Amino acid sequence: xxxxxxxxxxxxxxxxxxxxxxxxxxxxxxxxxxxxxxxxxxxxxxxxxxxxxxxxxxxxxxxxxxxxxxxxxxxxxxxxxxxxxxxxxxxxxxxxxxxxxxxxxxxxxxxxxxxxxxxxxxxxxxxxxxxxxxxxxxxxxxxxxxxxxxxxxxxxxxxxxxxxxxxxxxxxxxxxxxxxxxxxxxxxxxxxxxxxxxxxxxxxxxxxxxxxxxxxxxxx
Length: 220
Description:
Elements: H1 3-19, H2 36-49, H3 61-68, H4 81-107, E1 111-114, E2 117-120, H5 124-132, E3 139-141, H6 146-157, E4 183-185, H7 188-195, E5 214-215
Antiparallel strand pairs: 1-2, 3-4, 4-5
């Protein structure tokens, strides 16, 4: 595919995601690069439309017709009645999954484990999604007690907190609710790039130029 063809594909996939927010699909950067995010979004869209697993990934006019008209039976597009039924069923299953994920995140606070590290449960789907979408790193730190967090600051700067780098007892690491938690990760540059495209909630980011490994809903 040419650069312009890839940009067109990315734009069409973004329209699909925008028109079907209940599916919680990722939005792409329209940059003309056929990288992992675009492949993943293409795979997801084809699954949502009822394509068979055994079919390849041709991006042609038939695909765009189906993307714009997911419930229209049109055999010359390759979209027969069975494909329409599969698509409807898969989209229904996806909506249920998204709803359950959101309910679990917001009604079931607490801690679990990822990479063997204790972390807020609400962060686990985000970490899983990031790894499935190209982040090769691992979780370095998740949930920790206020006292332990304070001890880290003393070791780092000799004080109970180190402005911009170590929050001590006030750290978001000491909480495990969807509104307040924190994680530290390896390969943080790739993680920041990947997690920005995540369709899951809550959204997390980094707003600490001196602590780039740290991500939370507030960014600090």
